[in-house]
Amino acid sequence: MEERGSPDGDPARSLEQGPQGQETPIQVVLRVRPMSTAELRRGEQSALHCSGTQTLQVSPPGGGPDVAFRFGAVLDGARTQEDVFRACGVRRLGELALRGFSCTVFTFGQTGSGKTYTLTGPPPQGEGAPVPPSLAGIMQRTFAWLLDRAQHLGAPVTLRASYLEIYNEQVRDLLSVGSPRPLAVRWNKTRGFYVEQLRVVEIGGLEALMELLQMGLSRRRSSSHTLNQASSRSHALLTLYISRPRPQPQQMPPLDPGEPPASGKLCFVDLAGSEKVAATGSRGELMLEANNINRSLLALGHCISLLLDPQRKHNHIPFRDSKLTKLLADSLGGHGVTLMVACVSPSARCLPETLSTLRYASRAQRVTTRPQAPKSPVAKQPPRLENEMLQLQEENCRLRFQLDQMDPKAPGLHGARGAWAQRNLYGMLREFMLENERLRKEMSQLQSSRDLAWGEQQVLAQQVQELKGRLLSACSIWPGPAAAPLCPYLTPAAPCHAPPPLCSCLCCHLCLLCRAPLAHGACPRREGHLPQVLDPKAPGDMPLSARPPPWAPPCSPGSAKCLRERWSRGCKPGPEAGGPQTPDQQLPATWPEPATTQ
C-alpha cells in the first residue's frame, strides 16, 4: 500500500505553538461526505475508507493497489457539523485573528462533494427561513463564537464584513446596493491585492451578520446539472475585519504580552467545484462557467506547485494569472495562517476526480507561510527611545518653522517642502540659463574677433600684393630713348631700376647703383647695371643692405636724418639745404662731375 502525505497532527495543536515569524504549513483537513440517495439507488460502492483519524485509504474498484493519504485530520461521513468545526481548529484561527493575524479558511473539491454545505450548511428551505442550528456550517459557528469571545475581552471590538464572488473572472460585490457590478482588483505595496470600491459593512451583532450572510448566499450564482442540483458557479469570499480602538499617545499603557494587537482578518473562501463537462452534461452558459472555474482552479494549482519548489518559491509566482490567485496570494505564500478543508465523494464513479483532489490537497499541505501580525502601536517605548523621539519631534518642528519662514505662502510641512524643491529647481534652471547666455556671448565675441582677424588678414594680403607689385615695378628695366645728361638741379629724376627719390633734395636724384644723375628716361648705364642688381655690392662700395627701403617715408631736406642719409650716399649738402656754416665744416662749392655715358 502506497502512502502519501505527511502527518501534521492536530491543526489546533500545531497553531498553539505560536506562528509568529516561523514557517507554518497550510493545515489540511479532509472530509468525506456520505453516499447520496441517488448513488445508493444506483448501487454504487464506496472506494474510500478511513484508517484512523489522519489516514484515508483509497481502494480502486478494479482491484488495483491501495493508496493511502495522510492529512491533519480525516473525517468520514458519520461526522456531524459540530465535529467538523472542532476538528478543523477554527477557534484557534479566530484567536489569531483577534491578535492581529490574517487567517483564511477555504474549501476545495469536486462539484457536489459538500464544500458549501461544510461552510454554510444546507441551503435555506424558504426566503428568510433560518438554517437549523445542528446543520449550521463553519461560518455560522465561527460568527457565534467570535462575537461571544469579543464580549469577554474587556475592550470593545469592531467587526466589519465584505462579501464578493468571482463569476466568469469578474469580481462582483454581493452586498452592493442594487445589482452587482464588476469591480477591479488593484495592488499596492501596503495592502497587496485588494478589490476597489468593495462595500464593507459594520456588524452590530450576530443577527445582523447572519442576515448579511443569507443576503450574499441568495445573490450568489448557482445552477443545476447532472451531479449537483445546487451547484455553485462562482468562487465566494466573505471577509471579517476585526479591529480594536487604539489609545491616545499620552495614555499609552504598557502592553500585556497576552493582549491582542489592534486589527486582524478572517476570510472564508468557498471555491466552486471542479467538474468535467462530459460528466455534468453542461452546455451553453454552463459550459462557459465550467471552463472559467476550471481555468482559475488550474492557476491556483500551478501557484501551489511552484510554492513547493524551493528554487522557485523565492522567485516569481504567477498570482496574477487569475482573480482567484490574486485574492489568495497572501493566504498561500504571504504572512497569513491558512486552513484548507478538502471535500471528496466516496463513490467509485467519482474516483478520478477524488484522486485529483487528494493529490491537490497533499501538495497544498506542504506549502508554508510566515505568519506575521502588525506591530502594536500601544507598546510603551523605553525612556531612552522616548527622549530621542521627543528630540526628533522638536527638531522636526524647528525645521518646519524654518521652511515656512523661507516661503510664507506654503502652509505646513508639505507646502514648505514643495517650496524648497521649487526654489532649488528654479535656481538650477536659472543657473543653466545664465551659463547658456554667457556661453552665447562668448561665442559671439569669438566670432567677431575671428571676422576682424579675417578682415585684417585680407587687408594685409592686399598690401603684400601691392608691395610685391611695386617691388617688381622698381626692379624692372623700363625702355626709353637715351638722352644726354641733364643738370640734376634743374631736371627731376626719372625712375630706372632704382626706387623713386626718398626726399626732395638734389642728392637723391642719383642712380643708387652708379651714382649717375637721373634723366627723364633712365640711367645711361642701365645695361651695365643689370647684372649688378643682385650683387650684394653696388658701385661706390655701398652695400645694398645700407640703402633705405623703397617704402620708407620721405624726409625733409634740412632734417638731420636726411643729412645722414646724404652723407651715407656720398653727397654733400649745401647751404641751401641747411648744411653746416662753420669754416671747418664748409662743403665744396661745386658738386663732383657726374660720370658721362660711354
- The tally of helices reads 16
**Helix-strand category:** alpha+beta
Residue runs with pLDDT of under 50 for 5 or more positions: 7-16, 248-261, 480-499, 501-508, 530-541, 558-564, 571-598
Question: What's the pLDDT, averaged over the residues?
Answer: 75
Biased composition (Pro residues): 546-556
Biased composition (Basic and acidic residues): 1-13
Binding site for ATP: 109-116
Main location: cytoplasm
How would you describe this protein?
Helices cover 36% and strands 16% of the residues. The strands form six sheets. Strands 3, 7, 8, 9, 10, 11, 14, 17, 18 and 19 form a ten-stranded mixed β-sheet that branches. Strands 1-6-5-4 form a four-stranded mixed β-sheet, with helices on one face. The termini are far apart. Helix 4 (90-98) packs across helix 6 (138-151) and helix 13 (383-406) packs across helix 14 (412-475). The longest helix is centred in the C-terminal third of the chain and has 64 residues, at 412-475. Residues 7-16, 248-261, 480-499, 501-508, 530-541, 558-564 and 571-598 have low confidence and may be disordered. By secondary structure, it is α+β, with helices and mostly antiparallel strands. It contains 16 helices and 22 strands. It is elongated, with a radius of gyration of 57 Å.
